[in-house]
Design brief:
This protein has about 200 residues and is an all-alpha fold. Helix content is about 70%, strand content about 0%. The protein has ten helices and two strands, in the order H-H-H-H-H-H-H-E-E-H-H-H. It has a two-stranded antiparallel ribbon with strand order 1-2. A hairpin with a 4-residue loop joins strand 1 and strand 2. Helix 1 packs across helix 7. The longest helix has 26 residues. It is elongated.
Length: about 200
């Protein structure tokens, strides 16, 4: 029985979605420069020409993926958290819990973290004084850290360097999620402790 035009369109959309999802994971593991369409097609399990039916080039495919991994929602949530009238140690625990839940449960989130970090590195948008790069995600995290330092609940040091370290830990475990099948994931409390003082209780 021939497929209806509607079903044919559904199949095309399903294939496009599969290509985007699997390519996102592949780019996150191998980087843009390390990705070849021929290898990517083998990984997905489709013919190389199938990818070109949906995307004109590797650049076109990557740009589409990058539009999907926009962290605008994460930044908006982090901005609201940074402005909340609660102690910084509570903010850090809330942020760490949210990150680790998503990182543990969702390969796509791990790929999103990895790809966004790679793109930031490629931009070479560094702050010379602290050798860390600028982004709104970093800006609002640093704001929470500064609050915590005023409240004596966060360790001392450059807020931007501490921010870099915090998100560096997240990036590391995103890579572990993507590259290894067996690994021990840290807890949200472990992540929070990378910023909080030892004597900062759970209250």
């Amino acid at each position: 029985m021939p497929k209806t035009p509607e079903r044919c369109q559904e199949i095309r959309e399903e294939m496009r979605t599969k290509i985007l999802h699997d390519s996102m994971l592949y780019f996150a593991r191998n980087g843009f420069a390390g990705t070849k369409i021929s290898d990517l097609a083998k990984q997905i399990g489709i013919a190389q020409g199938t990818i070109y039916l949906y995307f004109k080039s590797k650049e076109d495919l990557f740009n589409e993926i990058f539009s999907l991994i926009s962290n605008e929602k994460d930044i908006k949530e982090l901005k609201l958290l940074s402005q909340a009238p609660i102690p910084a140690k509570q903010k850090i625990r809330m942020l760490s819990k949210s990150i680790m839940e998503k990182l543990t449960q969702d390969d796509s989130y791990a790929a999103k973290v990895a790809l966004n970090t790679q793109v930031l590195f490629e931009k070479n948008d560094f702050v010379s004084e602290n050798t860390t790069y600028q982004s709104d995600l970093y800006k609002y995290t640093a704001k929470i850290i500064e609050q915590g330092q005023r409240e004596k609940s966060v360790i001392s040091g450059s807020p931007m360097k501490l921010t870099d370290f915090y998100w560096g830990v997240v990036y590391l475990y995103a890579l572990k999620k993507l590259f290894t099948s067996k690994y021990e994931m840290i807890t949200a409390e472990d992540l929070a402790r990378s910023l909080l003082k030892d004597n900062c209780g759970k209250d």
